[in-house]
Amino acid sequence: MMLLDPSRDTPQVAFAIGRFAGTAVTRNRIRRRLRHILGSTSMAPGLYLFGLSRDTVREPSFEELSVAVQRITARITAPGGASA
Length: 84
Prior knowledge:
The protein has two helices and three strands, in the order E-E-H-E-H.
């Protein structure tokens, strides 16, 4: 889900990674990887980005997460990509 809040100076990101994704160690590793990837990604100020994964069978690699984030950010930066 993406929302745009023009009153915010920075993008806000939240992750919801449930137990189905693995142990706490695995879930935290996924969060750290996502934070690292998003830290080097340019996003619009005021953007709220919420992520939820429902059907992880195995832990995604750094490359797989990076490609997924690139796809999402491409949709965000496309005209009409973020919901107002």
